[in-house]
Amino acid sequence: MSCRHENTGRGRGRPINVLTCLFVRRRIGAYLDGALDESAAGSTARHLGGCASCQREAEELRRLRALLQRSLSPSARVAEPEWSGFWPAIVRGVEDARLRAPAPVARPERWWRPRWALGGAVAGAVIVSLTLWQTMFTPFVPDGPVVVSSAHTEDPRGTVMVYSTHEKDVTVVWVLGLDD
């Protein structure tokens, strides 16, 4: 008798309810462990006897448990790795790689490099231009006292101003107000 998961009624055999298969599949692990009571174990065994799909599920679970038992047996365990030579092996590997790497080609260092030369030229030009700007646009300050005096003229509309410095023997005379 074959088990069908759909209750269609087609074909030979009595159709089994889908919920029954789901309920039994939840209990297959406990059934294989022998953890079910007599009535539950009996109903599970009867269902497994008549349902090919649930039988395949139980057989796959048996094979999986056998594989787990073999892998967890003391003879199948892998020995703990030896870590005492781990760090020295890493250091040796790094040193070997460093020795195998080609040495960089030594080039003579140039005292003149284009970037540095350009930067130096720009800095020099800025310094020279600032120096010239300060010397060219500095106001003239005479060394000695400047004498400015005014005098009255005979004409009531005019004024005379006299500007002179003693060091350079320069005298400037302005006559103001006589334009008319």
Please name the defining characteristics of this protein.
disordered N terminus; 180 residues; mainly alpha
Spans of at least 5 consecutive residues whose pLDDT stays below 50 are 1-9
What's the N-to-C terminus distance? 145 Å
Tell me the overall shape: elongated
Number of separate strands: 3
The largest sheet is: 3 strands, antiparallel
Gyration radius over CA? 57 Å
Question: Order of SSEs, N→C?
Answer: HHHHHEEE
Task: Report the β-strand fraction as a percent range.
Answer: 5-15%
Structural class: mainly alpha
Portion of residues in helices? 40-55%
Strand order of the largest sheet: 1-2-3
Helical segment count: 5
Name the average pLDDT. Answer: 77
